[in-house]
Specification:
Layout: H1 2-18, H2 25-45, H3 55-70, E1 81-91, E2 94-96, E3 113-122, E4 125-134, H4 146-164, H5 171-184, E5 188-189, E6 194-197, E7 208-210, E8 232-240, E9 247-248, E10 255-258, H6 269-281, E11 287-288, H7 294-306, E12 310-312, E13 316-317, E14 324-333, E15 338-340, E16 349-350, H8 358-365, E17 383-386, E18 389-396, E19 401-402, E20 428-435
Antiparallel strand pairs: 1-3, 2-13, 3-4, 4-14, 5-8, 6-7, 6-8, 8-14, 9-13, 10-11, 10-12, 14-15, 16-19, 17-18, 18-20
Length: 445
């Protein structure tokens, strides 16, 4: 009970630091529960993304972890919960949505750039997570070259976007920052990739921030959104060593979403059975074909797609030989700061490039939660558990080396280490919000 009172007091202080929010405690709690499940799945997959691992098996494992974790929460009452986006693992030049069937193995090789992406929803409140890892990367010797350039650039773009998400900021200003950081590392943002706001049961809201606007659109076709307090964003930064132009890959689509606005009387028995299964298990969110009854999926999918009942998430790719990196997280925009709901250990990398733009340097040096000094009550030997979230004081750096730190330890759980650059380009305190990979070992959680 003492522990519970401590958490309640800490939560109240957090709210004072961030400012009043229309996001209720219940809503924020569900976002954070979803984020904790998503981060547990990503944390499970990262060490398994090693040379020889099968991408199809890893995607299935990611989905399994999500289902297992969700089974432990909200077991009483009618609260909808499930994947918000199936686990996809896109390798090297592949940009997104690669989530193969189990009978379609693809094995990782040493040095592969592995992008893990997935989402979870609890009562319709969605948490997305995206992370980039290097298969076979050594914890003692840094990876260099273009691998390091694109990962370092994407990581710093994510840090910058978090600091730019403030009420009143225009989406075009965020896009400009992403472009400038990418250019510093001789990389390009990928056209067609974007950050967007999330709404209950809605994966893509009405506010879009392009990493790079589609060159086929003129300025009049672009909607320059404005960030507002209480927005919830899926920050999704995707950079490439190539031209940044995605194209459909030469592989079949395996991720779909039911279009709730479409109606059609299906003719095939298998199609009707397939649609009924999707309506029951994935009524509003995207799903992977491997999660469905294979007999109905094989015979009934074509009719459902042909008549618009299912929309497709095509696999996209850059040119062969290029490398694509992605970092994504769910962010809660408060009046005085932006809360980041995921952070994972980066591979050990060293780029020959760094950010020299003074405006960007100053941005990255700012605390992510710019609300003045942190209350003493929130700092206990560098960290405090608040509603399943770890607040850690670390260093923001705009240099080019991302060297691993030793993992922090707690009596509640083993925490992710946050691997940040230690080349002392900057030494500004930053708060990093890191959900626990596992719940505390207590029956009073």
């Amino acid at each position: 009970h003492t522990h519970t009172h401590t958490l309640v007091g800490a939560i109240m202080e957090i709210e004072q630091v961030l400012g009043a929010s229309e996001l209720s405690g219940d809503t924020i709690g569900k976002y954070k529960m979803a984020a904790q499940v998503a981060n547990t799945a990503v944390a499970t997959l990262v060490p398994l993304c090693a040379p020889g691992a099968d991408v199809a098996q890893l995607c299935a494992l990611g989905d399994k972890v999500v289902h297992e974790q969700l089974a432990t929460i909200f077991n009483r009452g009618q609260v909808e919960k499930g994947p918000a986006f199936p686990t996809s693992i896109s390798v090297n030049e592949c940009i997104k949505n690669f989530s193969p069937m189990l009978e379609e193995p693809q094995y990782l090789q040493s040095g592969d750039v592995v992008k893990i992406s997935l989402g979870v929803q609890v009562d319709g409140y969605i948490a997305m997570a995206g992370h980039t890892h290097i298969a076979g990367a050594s914890p003692s010797a840094p990876v260099t070259g273009r691998h390091a350039d694109v990962i370092c650039a994407a990581h710093l773009c994510g840090e910058a976007v978090q600091r730019m998400l403030r009420p009143g900021v225009k989406g075009s200003a965020i896009t400009n920052v992403i472009r400038r950081i990418a250019a510093a590392f001789k990389c390009k943002p990928v056209q067609g990739s974007f950050t967007c706001n999330l709404k209950r049961f809605v994966l893509e809201g009405d506010k879009f921030v392009d990493n790079e606007p589609d060159e086929r659109l003129d300025d009049g076709q672009l909607d320059d959104c404005e960030v507002a307090a209480n927005d919830v964003f899926w920050v999704n930064v995707v950079l490439s060593t190539g031209e940044g132009k995605g194209r459909d890959a030469d592989c079949r689509c395996t991720v779909f979403q039911r279009d709730v606005s479409k109606r059609y009387t299906l003719k095939l028995k298998a199609a009707r059975a397939l649609y009924a299964e999707v309506q029951e298990r994935f009524p509003t969110m995207p799903f992977a074909l491997r999660e469905l009854d294979p007999r109905n999926a094989k015979l009934g999918l074509t009719e459902c797609v042909k008549h618009g009942l299912f929309s497709t998430f095509s696999v996209t790719t850059e040119k062969v030989g290029e490398l694509v990196a992605q970092f994504g997280f769910t962010a809660l925009v408060h009046d005085k700061g932006t809360e980041r709901l995921s952070s994972h250990a980066l591979p050990y990398i060293h780029s020959v490039y760094s950010v020299v733009d003074q405006d960007i340097q100053q941005l990255l040096a700012r605390p992510a939660l710019s609300a003045g000094p942190i209350p003493d009550a929130l700092v206990r030997r560098g960290c405090v558990l608040v509603w399943g979230v770890l607040l850690t004081l670390s260093q923001a750096c705009t240099g080019s080396c991302l060297e691993p730190q030793k993992p922090a330890r707690s009596k509640y759980a083993t925490l992710f280490s946050t691997q940040l650059c230690s080349c002392n380009s900057f030494e500004s305190d930053v708060i990093i919000l890191t959900p626990f990979p596992h719940p505390p070992h207590t029956h009073n959680h």
